[in-house]
Write a structure and sequence with these properties.
Helix content is 37%, strand content 13%. The protein is of the alpha/beta class. The strands form four sheets. A nine-stranded mixed sheet has the order 5-6-8-7-11-12-13-15-14, sandwiched between helices. It has a two-stranded antiparallel ribbon with strand order 1-2. Strands 3-4 form a two-stranded antiparallel ribbon. A hairpin with a 4-residue loop joins β1 and β2. The protein is elongated, with a radius of gyration of 35 Å.
Length: 512
């Protein structure tokens, strides 16, 4: 059947092997049907076979569609793309569509190409979409200055727009994700620059870890009170692994106030308590574990992704697993270990320690204390954690004495929309009494809402020697109002004894 195959197919559709096969077969059958020299029986058989071929074998039935967008109108066959999408690609990569089409048509009407020039049109089609650096958009730039960004800090410590004083930080200024990313990083830089001197005014110094590291050498900064060597009580905070040093939640900074979304209010209230003069605060830095060599500073993954690039479409800068890490702080667990070693080295051995952990900080601090409880059991007095999920603490803790401490001297604040301090189910799962954090959605917002309740618990443990938490009725925690429970015993004189709930049979549970 090869003699019926056209040397040059000028069909109006995209040509592939199946199109050539069907077109050749139909042409052969037509030849047999129209050849009057052949027997009538052969011509009739050919006619029957042609009529039985599917209509889709006709080249006119092939609908040319754009390989990028699927359009069926305005498709340029040489490029298999619609005119509109070809214009988009051409403008994006700095090319001219009509110049490319002209060269392709020139190859069509000109002399047959030599053997070495075969496929020149297709090679040009590939070259047309080559990414030239000179034609790519520049990487957006935003100054790390509040006034230049169009914002200011008002009397209520809130960041508001200069043009519209009632408007908060406007994130969606563009549909380009890179623009949004860089604008947010510029605003975050302004917030970090604002809180650093305010921590210093509260008596917190920036300490590089390792301690012998110079500021130009790889290190992870933490915050610690200047009286840490003489303080009788150490309050240590382990936050989330995606937050900057001293920041709880940028969303709270933008919606409420800078002091509310950072650790400023937390530190201020801790130092104003009854034991404030004898208290030192240590704030770890689980987020800034990536070392930026050119800028000689530690940063979060989000800040790393916002570093300047060659152009607006370049990829993220590669992170070297050795050069862009700080020795001894390669991950969250190692950093938690180094912070506890710093506390052990710099504080009085008689000083008591209260631990606060959120999310990853809670998990890693509990795991470290469980593995090193013999070293810390005489010093750690109480612990509070904030979780946005259920964590099987009882299954992971191995040390019996630490498990006993965890049941009697620890509290967990969970994501829930009930008022702060409302007892919740979950003791059987988490291993300690569980309470509502007052935050219904975001784990990062637990501390701004629940830190006062945590400080009150630490004060209660400090004021009552040998204090032990009363047990709530055990149960598996679930979402909803059925999580609310009562206390098992009501003989201790605490504020929690006065709480009474009537949420239905499932909410009340068994009480003794």
């Amino acid at each position: 059947m090869s003699q019926f195959r056209a040397k040059k197919l000028d069909l109006g559709c995209f040509v592939n092997a199946r199109v050539i096969r069907d077109h050749t077969k139909r042409q052969a059958l037509r030849y047999i049907i129209r050849n009057t020299t052949l027997p009538q029986r052969a011509r009739a058989a050919a006619q029957l076979q042609l009529s039985q071929m599917h209509c889709y074998t006709r080249s006119t039935q092939v609908n040319n569609r754009c390989i990028e967008g699927g359009k069926s109108r305005g498709v340029l066959k040489d490029f298999r793309m619609a005119r509109s999408l070809l214009d988009v690609f051409s403008s994006h990569f700095g090319c001219l569509r009509w110049k490319a089409i002209f060269l392709v048509l020139e190859r069509r009407v000109g002399e047959p190409p030599a053997e070495k020039d075969r496929g020149r049109a297709w090679r040009f089609h590939i070259d047309m979409f080559r990414r030239l650096s000179s034609s790519l958009p520049k990487d957006p730039e935003f100054p790390a200055d509040l006034e230049k960004l169009g914002y200011y800090v008002n009397a209520e410590d809130q960041i508001r727009s200069i043009e519209k004083p009632d408007q908060e930080f406007h994130y969606f200024i563009s549909k380009n994700e890179r623009v949004l990313e860089l604008q947010r990083e510029a605003m975050d830089s302004c917030i970090r620059a604002n809180v650093v001197p305010r921590f210093a005014s509260l008596g917190l110094d920036t300490i590089p870890l390792p301690l012998n590291a110079r500021l130009s050498e790889p290190h992870v900064p933490i915050l610690a009170s200047s009286n840490i060597s003489t303080a009788k009580c150490i309050l240590v905070y382990f936050g989330e692994s995606d937050q900057d040093l001293g920041l709880f939640a940028y969303r709270v900074v933008g919606q409420e106030a800078i002091a509310a979304g950072s650790a400023l209010n937390f530190v201020s209230d801790a130092l104003k308590s009854e034991k404030g003069k004898e208290t030192a605060v240590v704030i770890s830095n689980l987020g800034q574990l990536v070392w930026y060599r050119r800028g000689a500073r530690a940063m979060t993954i989000r800040s790393w992704n916002a570093l300047p690039r060659k152009n607006g479409v370049s990829g993220v800068m590669r992170r070297d697993p050795i050069k862009n890490r700080v020795q001894g702080h390669e991950n969250v667990s190692e950093h938690v270990k180094r912070v506890f070693e710093f506390i052990h080295q710099k504080t009085d051995k008689a000083a008591k320690i209260d631990v606060v952990g959120i999310s990853e900080g809670a998990e890693e601090s509990v795991k470290y204390l469980d593995a090193n409880w013999d070293l810390w059991k005489a010093r750690v007095r109480a612990a509070c954690i904030g979780l946005g999920y259920l964590w099987q603490v009882g299954e992971e803790v191995q040390e019996p004495t630490f498990k006993e401490f965890w049941a009697k001297r620890a509290r967990a604040y969970l994501i829930h929309n009930e008022p702060v301090g409302t007892p919740l189910l979950g003791r059987e799962t988490i291993g300690c009494n569980c309470f509502s954090s007052g935050e219904a959605k975001h784990t990062e917002c637990i501390m701004p809402h629940a830190y006062k309740s945590m400080l009150e618990f630490f004060q209660l443990v400090h004021n009552i020697p040998g204090y032990e938490e009363k047990e709530t009725n055990a149960g598996v925690a679930t979402d909803g109002p059925e999580m609310i429970v009562k206390w098992v015993n009501s003989d201790q004189d605490t504020a929690a004894d006065l709480i009474t709930f009537s949420m239905g049979d499932e909410a009340r549970g068994e009480v003794s």
